[in-house]
Amino acid sequence: MYAIISELSRWAIPVILLVIPLTAMIRGVKVFETFVQGAEDGFATAIKTIPYLVAMMVSINVFRASGAMEMLVGALSPYLDIIGFPAELIPHAIMRPLSGGAALGIASNIIASHGPDSYIGRLVSTMQGTSDTTFYVLTLYFGSVGIYRYRYAIYSGLAADFTTLAASIYIINRLYG
Amino acid sequence: MVNVIWLGMIVFGILAAAAGGNIEVVTKAALEGAGSAVKISIGLIAIITFWLGIMKLAEEAGIISFLSRAIAPLMKFLFPEIPGNHPAMGAIIMNISANVLGLGNAATPMGLIAMQEMQKLNSGDPRTASNSMCTFLALNTSCITIIPTTIIGIRVVHGSADPTEVVGTTIFATACGMTVAVIADRLFRSIFTRHRGRS
């Protein structure tokens, strides 16, 4: 199973790279010129994200490095204990919407110390695989087009995140609890 | 909301550092954060430029309109404000497909292209998110994942007996999340429209 999946992700991009330009060529598109024409805006699009990302990353970094995050973890852990959510996973749950790299670091740390096939190891694997860096994605995507009024986008994103977290806890409890 | 979270993290961070007697970490953390943000953006230049070129080819070749026709009813329901053959549809489809396959590197540039195309269709204030954008981001951040590539790799490294056993739990949890994302998007939209008077 793992072999099939890893083969699939190895081949996905090369196949796309073959099929799209080839189809274009067959349909009579001037492939080189069209590619260059499309790629023109790449630099501007990427550079536009800088101020939005700087603002978000500064705030997240200060929150983490100052020890404020640990205080939040300490304050939340007695309540989460009640619903069967292990305290070791709280930093991951808090970091996940903010920083993908930090959450992945926490997840691999937990998997290394508890083992990938333990209850905690399976739960953190599912949590890492299911959720996205909601705040990072919102900042980056809206930033790239100069939008700073997000309206309700954060609420629906967080509602989905909470649902995914609850569903992960439920299914892991059900199957392996 | 984003203002409150942003300022809240900074204020609590500075208070916590002051209480812990190591206020100097704030300066270092702030500058490091700014540095890594710039690094991410610079790193995006190459990959966005590349995928923009490929997307333009897909559009000219008619692949995008083919894909949009194939799942038109679903897309019409989710994004009623985007015309069926618009490039935004193609970018959204490609972004969601990349997310489903766990191809983060391809998903991000596609997502940014989709945002640009939706911004062209944004009839309201260009500084305010349109309905389509909110729906897209709700779907994007809660997207169904069939292959959580990275975490499977980590499970392999740590000697799991069955590294892909989390595929099933991942599909279940993301399916729940995505359902709620679609419902929440419509629900919050009607609440916001009623209170702010913007459709």
Structure description:
The complex is a heterodimer of chains A (177) and B (199). Chain A has 177 residues and is an all-alpha fold. Chain A folds into two domains: 1-40; 45-176, no CATH class. Chain A contains ten helices and no strands. In chain A, helix 7 packs antiparallel against helix 8. Chain A is globular and about 65 Å long. The relative contact order of chain A is 0.09. The model of chain A has no long low-confidence stretch (mean pLDDT 86). In chain B, helix 3 packs across helix 5 (87-100). Chain B has helices at 2-19, 24-60, 63-70, 72-78, 87-100, 104-121, 131-141, 149-157, 166-196. Chain B has one domain. With 199 residues, chain B is mostly helical.
Layout: helices, strands, pairs:
The complex is a heterodimer of chains A (177) and B (199).
Chain A: H1 2-26, H2 31-39, H3 42-48, H4 50-65, H5 68-82, H6 90-95, H7 100-114, H8 119-130, H9 134-143, H10 153-176
Chain B: H1 2-19, H2 24-60, H3 63-70, H4 72-78, H5 87-100, H6 104-121, H7 131-141, H8 149-157, H9 166-196
Helix pairs in contact in B: 2-6, 3-5, 5-6, 7-9
Characterize the main sheet of chain A.
none
Radius of gyration of chain A: 21 Å
Question: Care to count the β-strands of chain B?
Answer: 0
How many strands, what sense, and barrel or not for the largest sheet of chain B?
none
User: Runs of chain A with pLDDT <50, length 5+?
Assistant: none
Q: Domain count of chain B, please report it.
A: 1
Task: Determine the strand fraction of chain A and express it as a percent band.
Answer: under 5%
Task: Estimate the strand proportion of chain B.
Answer: under 5%
Topology as H/E string of chain B?
HHHHHHHHH
Structural class of chain A: mainly alpha
N/C terminus separation of chain A:
24 Å
Number of strand segments of chain A: 0
Number of helical runs of chain B? 9
* Mean pLDDT over all positions of chain A: 86
Mean pLDDT of chain B: 86
The oligomeric state is heterodimer
Residues in helix, % of chain A: over 70%
Global shape of chain B: globular
The helix/strand order of chain A is HHHHHHHHHH
